[in-house]
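pinging the channel bc i need a second pair of eyes. not urgent but kinda urgent?? the chain im working w is below, pasted from the shared doc
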Amino acid sequence: MATFNNPLLDTRRLLQKLVIMFSFSVICVYLLCLWLGCCESDLVDKSQNSHPILLTGWYRDNKNKTVLREILTASGYAEEGSVDVNSSGKDWTATRRLPHALIIGVKKGGTRALLEFLRLHPDIRALGSEPHFFDRHYTRGLSWYRSMMPKALEGQIVMEKTPRYFVTPETPARIHAMSRDIKLIVVVRDPITRAISDYTQIISKSPDIPSFESLTFKNRSTGQIDSLWSPLYIGLYAKHLERWLAYFPLTQIHFVHGERLISDPAGELGRVQDFLGLQRIITDKHFYFNKTKGFPCLKKPEGSSKPHCLGKTKGRTHPKIDPEVIRKLREFYQPHNLKFYQMAGMDFGWQ
């Protein structure tokens, strides 16, 4: 029986085979890509637990300019829409930890200014409010205290400030029980100026209290100073420091000169950064002096039209105090100041 070849039919069959082979190849490639994509996704998810992802690309900055940047992202650490970078690069898991450093005092010495300035440093994570754990809320326990702290990466220093700690008798032992190696920062200021500032804050809330002069003395006719009146008691720095030195060596306590914090904020911040073992990132380029308030402010941050100064409660005008009362207070504080200079190993020059 004869066999006939149909060229058109052969061509059609060949095309069908090619279409089938092409379709099969496309399906295989798709399945392969899908499988590789899943594996890559798993690898990324796993790597995010311990390592950052480096994203490079074009982004809009605060001035709406397009810039090429590299952003390091860490799993679980993008808080409130921000991306934080840990300069140490040791651990990219943000956790709440007990503080490594405390600003323990003193009230009206400049502790708020110091805290706000230190928060400029990328390796410092500081609680904005005063938790008062060691003086008021100690019975709540360390777990509660830890829950109050901001999340931080390994290598970042967690800190908080509560000025009342310095003068509360129980706090040194309590803090020592939490950490023997904690670093302590004390901002001190001329005790008389500090007392007047303290009184100024008090009368802003309770304007009907007696005058500063009358509260200074137990009996003004005899000239006996009331050293237990809180604004004057806080200024007995040597008395308070004795309690701290019973638990911590002087090497773990850093004193910030309150007056110099105003006249030379960059210098004081440089020494604090050294004490904390940090690179000196906060410098004089971050500050300008506000003549109206009478203290330094932070220069306006990028993307903002206004500088950052402390609130209205800072820089209040002090009442004018009787010069004779000031003289009596100078005599009262002189031996206490000299003893404090010796204990701190630093002459603050208060007259």
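so The mean pLDDT is 81. and The longest strand covers residues 53-60. — does that match what u expected or am i reading it wrong
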